[in-house]
Amino acid sequence: VILGVTVRPVRSCFVLFDPFLPGMEQSIEQTTEVLLCLSPGEAADLKEGINFLRNKKTGKDFILYKNKNRVRACKNVCKHQGGLFIKDIEDLDGRSVRCTKHNWRLDVSTMKYVNPPGSFCQDELVVEMDEENGLLLLELNPPNPWDSEPRSPEHLAFGEVQITYLTHACMDLKLGDKRMVFDPWLTGPAFARGWWLLHEPPSDWLERLCQADLIYISHMHSDHLSYPTLKELAGRRPDIPIYVGNTERPVFWNLNQSGVQLTNINIVPFGIWQQVDKNLRFMILMDGVHPEMDTCIIVEYKGHKILNTVDCTRPNGGRLPEKVALMMSDFAGGASGFPMTFSGGKFTEEWKAQFIKAERKKLLNYKARLVKDLQPRIYCPFAGYFVESHPSDKYIKETNIKNDPNELNNLIKKNSDVVTWTPRPGATLDLSRMLKDPTDSKGIIEPPEGTKIYKDSWDFEPYLNILNAAVGDEIFLHSSWIKEYFTWAGFKDYNLVVRMIETDEDFSPFPGGYDYLVDFLDLSFPKERPSREHPYEEIRSRVDVIRHVVKNGLLWDDLYIGFQTRLQRSPDIYHHLFWNHFQIKLPLTPPNWRSFLMHCG
C-alpha cells in the first residue's frame, strides 16, 4: 500500500474464465524450427573460428563459431537494434564480430557482448548433427501467448472501434462500449525540462481521460508516465483503473514522491490475456532488450488485434503477431543524449551530423522492414512527436533531427500493401471502415478546419521553478552530500573515474558549484585522478536539474535523455553497467536527507 494506493499484482482482471484452471489446459505447444541445414561436406568445410552463413531460401543470416569439435551458433542479428554483424578487423583473436549499426561487438565464442561491456548475451541456436554428419541449426519457439484461446475476427459495425490520436504516444481507443487510453502525456515537460509536446492536444483531453474505462502505461519514462498529466486526472478520477506490466523496476516506483493520488494501479503479468468484457481483452508483453522496464501491448476486440510496440527496441524478443488489424510504433529517433551532448575526440559537429543522418535512415529502414514482415492491415507511426522547445536547448533542437513520419509511411507503401496513417491531434480512425475500404472518405476523420496542430508556446515557468527550488536546498551547503549520495546509489567495484561539474545554462561552471571526482573502483572521492590505468568520463550537468535529481533520488534519464548534460570520455567506450545502474537500477526510495542533515547539524 502506497499513500492509500493499493498496487495490486493481478493475474487476470475482470476474469470471465481462467485458461489455466484444471481441465482447461492450453493446446498450444513449443515448436522446433529448422533454420539452416548443412550437408556433411558443408559441415566438414567449417573453418576454425567464425563462419558467416546464409540460408539462400529464406535470406536469413547466421554465425557459427567452431572450436575443435564444438560448434556454437546464433542468428546474425544484433540484439540492440537488429543490425547485421561483420568481421571485427580489430579482433586479433578471431572471436568477435562487429555490428554495422552501432559498432556493438559480440564474442561468439562466449555469446556475450564485449562492447558495451557487461551488457547482454546473444540468444543461441541449437546445433544438432544428423545421421550423416550434417549439421542442423534449430530454434526452439515457445508458444505465442496470444494464440491461447484464439478468436476469429467478427463483423464490426461502422463506428464500433475508433482510434483517436491525442498527442505523442497517447491514443484514445473506443472499443464497443469501453474506452481505453494509451500513455497519456498531455501537459508539462518530460525528462526534467528537455522534452515538450510538439502537437497541441485536443482541448477536451482531460474529459477524454476521465471517461476512460482503463489506461495502459507502457513504461516509466516521463513521456509515457507523465505525472503532471496524471495529477490533473487524479484530481477528478483518482480511482481510474491503470494497468502496467510486471517489470523488474516498477513503473510507478516514484508514486510516493510524486504526490499524485491514484488508487487503482494494477500490475499484470506478461503474456496472459486480461479480460475486460466478453469482446475485449488485452495482453502486455516485455521488451527483449530492456525487459526490466519496457513493455508493449496487444489489444483484441472481437478477434481484431491492435499491436502497440511503443518504444520497445525488440518487442517480445522479436516474436510478434502477424496480420494484425492495426499496428503502431515509434519512428522518430532522437530520444537519447548521444551524440548531440558529446564533445572531444571524434565528436565534431560534422561527425555528429553525419552520424545522426545515418542513424535516422537505419531506423526508418528497420521500422519499414518490421512492418513488411508483420504485414498489419494498417500502420501508424507515433510516440515521436516531441520538441526541445526551451530556448536554452536551441542547439539540441537544431541538431537532433528526427524522422518524418510521412517518409516512413512512403517507404512502407513502396515495399508493401500496408495502409498507413500519419496522425494529427484529434484525428479519428474508424477501424471497420478502413478494413473494409481503405479509400473510404469517412475512414479517417481529420480534425476540424482551423484546428491548431502544432504548439507554439509552452508554460515553462512552473516546472522550472520546481527544479530551481533544489539549487538552494540546505543539503548542498554540506560537501559531504557527495559521499552520501553516491553511497546511496550503490554503484562500485567498477574501474571508472567520473568528474562531475555543476554548470549554468550554457554548461559553464556554476559559480560556487561543485566540481569533484568519483572513483567507482573503491567509491572514493579523490582530489586528483588516480595513477592506475582507468577509463574517464567528464559529465557537466545543469545545476538545477542535477540537484533536483540528487535531492529526490531520481533516475539519470532526466539528465541524459533530457539533454541536460555535456559529456566527454576517454577512451570512447559506452560503460553500460554504469549508465544502466544510474538510469534503471538506483534504489526505489530516495536518500534519507533528513537524517543526513541531522548528522551534519
TrEMBL record:
Protein name, entry field: Cytidine monophosphate-N-acetylneuraminic acid hydroxylase
Compartmental location: Cytoplasm
Keyword Iron: yes
A Gene Ontology BP annotation from the UniProt entry: CMP-N-acetylneuraminate metabolic process
The entry's keywords: 2Fe-2S, Cytoplasm, Electron transport, Iron, Iron-sulfur, Metal-binding, Oxidoreductase, Transport
GO molecular function: 2 iron, 2 sulfur cluster binding; CMP-N-acetylneuraminate monooxygenase activity; metal ion binding
Cited PANTHER family: CYTIDINE MONOPHOSPHATE-N-ACETYLNEURAMINIC ACID HYDROXYLASE, INACTIVE CYTIDINE MONOPHOSPHATE-N-ACETYLNEURAMINIC ACID HYDROXYLASE
GO cellular component: cytoplasm
